[in-house]
Each structure stands twice: as C-alpha cells, then as structure tokens.
Task: inverse folding
C-alpha cells in the first residue's frame, strides 16, 4: 500500500512538473506564431477557408461562416469561381507576371479591388534594407481579361525568394478581403534583368567635397575651389571648439533602454571598452522616398561632423556600390509594417547590418529629427533623458533636427585622435564619476561655442 502511495506521489509530481513545462511551451508557441506573421497560410483566420488550385493554397472568405461584416449580401466577391477562372505565369526574362481570366473580368466576379503584393522572404536582423524596395503592392485593373504586370524586382544582395500574393476585395471599402493568399514564389536569382536600386542622386545638391567620388570632369573648377576654401575655413572652427568635457564620458557610459516589459526606461551601463564608433570611411546614401530637404539636412550634418569629428571621414554617394551606411526612407504602410513592425516607431538603426530605416510618412520636422537621431546611433551615440538632445527619450524634449551641445560634445571625444579617451582628452576621472552619479547635471552642460556648429546644421 505504502509502495502504491509512493508511486502515486511520484506520478503526481511528474505530471505537474511536465504540465508546467508544457504550459511554458504553449506560451512560447503562441509567441512564436505571433512573431512569425509571415506564415499566414498556416493559421486560418476566422471567417476564411483554404481552397486548393494547381497545387497552390488560397485563403478565401468562407461564406458559410456568418461572422463576416455587414454589407456582405450580393456584393461579395465570387471567390472560388474567380480563382478557377484565373491562370498566372511569371516570365523570368522580362519580369512580367501575366494574369489571365478565362471568360470574364474580375469585376464580373464582383471583385472591385485587386492587388498583387510582393513580400520578400528575409531575416531582418541579417539583411540590408534594400529588400524594402521589393516590398510592394501593385494595383491590377479589374475590368480586363488579361493583365500584364511588370513586377520590377530589384537586386537586393542576399535575397532568394519573393512571395507573390493576391489580394482581392469587393465593392465596400469596409468589407474584408475576399482573397488574401500566396500566388507563387519567385526565385530572384533566376531573374535575368534585376534592377539596381540607386541612392537619391544628390550631385547637384551636395557640395563636391562631401561627395564620395565627385564627377571632376563636370565640375566647375571655380565652384570646387570656392567650396574647398569655405570647407577649410570651417575646419578651422575645430580649434575654437570647447575643451572636451567630463560630462560627455558620463553620458556615453549611461545609456537608456526601453524596459524589457515595455513600461518606462532602464539604465544600461556601457563600458568604455565597448563604445561603438566608426573606424572606416562612412559613405551615406539615401534611398526610397527621399526629398531635396533630406539631402540638404545630410549636407548640413556632414558640414558639422567634419568639424566636430575630423577623424570621422563622412561622405555622400549617389552610387549604391560605394554606400556603406544606407538610409532607407519608406512610408510605414501595411506592406512595410508587415516586414518591419514599423508602426511602433518612426526610425531604427540596425547595428549588425549597419543601415537605417526612416518612416517617410511622418511630418518633415519629425522626419529630420529621426534622420539625425538614427545617424547619431550609427555614429555611436546612445540615448539619454536630457531635455536638450536629439538622442533624448525624455517626454520634455523637443524633436530637434540637429545635434545639440551634449550630442556634439560626445561626438567630439568619441572621435578624438587619442587611444585613451580619458587621459588623451585631459579628463578627470573623479569629475566623470560625479557626472555619472548626477546625470542631470551632465545634461545641463552648455557652451556658446557650440552655436556655430548648431547653426551649420540648420542651413536651408
Ligand atoms: Zn534611438
């Protein structure tokens, strides 16, 4: 009897033990599914069903499930018969996708809106942002029986596959999609004429001395010399900069991170041995939805950076092959959000693959703030809670579009020509400790000598 009781206790512990692990696994699986929204076809949305045609699975509205929206009645897309009437073919020679509808147009099947969507297969953390140019929704006319669409696929380095999706909906705008499914997968390596994505051509907007390879033959020699002299005079401003300040080291050692549970901020201590700064020539290129004012801003920033951080060699290039710090500017619409989860932020710097994403749909002032903020990260600046800084997470801070005093003084010491950032800049360890313990005092360091550099960044 005692033996049975022992077995019973053992089994109880065993079952409870494993059930705990199972629950843990379930939550992990849910997290996994939530974080891999790309696998839409593996999880059927409520109100939808899967139909199969020519080996492809399509997700279509299930009319038998009446949890659909109002307005469903006779305006619904006739999805199954529409799919049966459709044939698709992609030509790897000319990038054309041909959709053929046998006898009627999509409109005859009550499809009022039809889109082909491109979604590259990619691992964000490993990839460069040039894949974003292959994220696209292409509207398809619904009143034609044969439609040819130029998919205009761009070369994006490591990319292999691009999923082509078909998205259809009926007459009412608020009606849910009646088809939202993968049509085919394109292997980008097989495409014979991939397009090359080039940065915004800024040759007429950015001074030749800030261009990576200025086109000397087309340059007005006088203009070039004048720019050169102006630039040399500006560089002399370096001698008038304030002396390196202990507060900048304290600010660099104390970064701010979002709380892992999503509420508030936590301090993140950074060792001076692990400071991030750029050691090779940095060549910026702006891609996507770029406007002239973005280039003007970059030109102004380069102007100021060549003075505060002369050891940081920084240029702009309109040639993709020489860009090593690309800035991709796209509006965070549904398609891009699906890839980047960008609805939660207006910009991001990816340190491993060294590129910046900026949501091009935000207002001009905020967009410029985001460009400077993310460039600040790329140059090695962390966050702070100061009121006057482009790197601030404080609610009290304005979204300024320039490097302010404390940002500039950090860049000054970070790119100083010394192997020891403290002794090389004649800084006092005790004062650094004081500012670390009183970080708000570090925020309030101001010096009028930075005014010229701030003015340079605000040129229009
Ligand atoms: Zn940031």
Result:
């Amino acid at each position: 009897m005692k033996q049975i009781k022992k077995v019973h206790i053992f089994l109880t512990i065993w079952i409870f033990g494993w059930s705990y692990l199972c629950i843990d696994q379930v939550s992990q699986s849910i997290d996994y599914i939530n974080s891999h929204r790309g696998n839409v076809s593996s999880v059927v949305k409520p109100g939808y069903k899967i139909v199969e045609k020519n080996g492809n699975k399509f997700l279509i509205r299930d009319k038998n499930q009446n949890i659909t929206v109002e307005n469903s009645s006779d305006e619904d897309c006739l999805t199954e018969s529409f799919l049966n009437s459709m044939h698709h073919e992609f030509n790897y020679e000319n990038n054309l996708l041909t959709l053929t509808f046998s006898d009627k147009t999509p409109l005859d099947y009550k499809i009022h809106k039809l889109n082909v969507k491109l979604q590259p297969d990619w691992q964000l953390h490993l990839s460069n942002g040039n894949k974003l140019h292959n994220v696209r929704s292409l509207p398809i006319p619904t009143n034609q029986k044969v439609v040819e669409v130029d998919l205009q696929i761009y070369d994006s380095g490591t990319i292999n596959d691009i999923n082509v999706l078909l998205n259809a909906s009926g007459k009412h705008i608020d009606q849910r999609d009646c088809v939202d499914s993968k049509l085919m997968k394109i292997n980008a390596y097989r495409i014979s004429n991939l397009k090359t994505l080039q940065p915004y051509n800024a040759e007429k907007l950015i001074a030749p001395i800030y261009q990576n390879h200025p086109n000397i033959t087309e340059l007005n020699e006088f203009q070039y010399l004048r720019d050169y002299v102006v630039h040399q005079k500006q560089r002399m401003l370096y001698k008038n900069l304030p002396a390196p300040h202990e507060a900048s080291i304290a600010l660099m050692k104390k970064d701010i991170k979002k709380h892992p549970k999503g509420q508030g901020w936590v301090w993140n201590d950074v060792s001076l041995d692990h400071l991030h700064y750029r050691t090779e020539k940095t060549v910026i290129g702006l891609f996507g939805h770029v406007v002239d004012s973005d280039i003007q801003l970059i030109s102004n920033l380069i102007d100021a950076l060549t003075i505060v951080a002369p050891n940081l060699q920084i240029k702009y290039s309109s040639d993709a092959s020489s860009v090593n710090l690309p800035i991709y500017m796209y509006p965070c619409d549904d398609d891009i959000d699906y890839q980047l989860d960008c609805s939660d932020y207006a910009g991001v710097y990816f340190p491993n693959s060294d590129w910046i994403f900026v949501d091009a749909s935000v207002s001009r002032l905020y967009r410029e703030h985001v460009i400077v903020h993310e460039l600040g990260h790329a140059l090695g600046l962390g966050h702070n809670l100061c009121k006057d800084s482009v790197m601030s997470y404080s609610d009290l801070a304005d979204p300024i579009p320039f490097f302010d005093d404390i940002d500039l003084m950090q860049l000054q010491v970070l790119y100083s020509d010394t192997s020891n950032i403290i002794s090389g800049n004649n800084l006092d360890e005790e004062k650094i400790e004081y500012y670390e313990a009183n970080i708000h005092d570090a925020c309030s360091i101001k010096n009028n000598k930075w005014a010229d550099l701030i003015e340079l960044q605000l040129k229009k």
User: Anything to note?
Assistant: DSSP finds eleven helices and 16 strands in the chain. The longest strand covers residues 161-169. The chain has a mean pLDDT of 82.
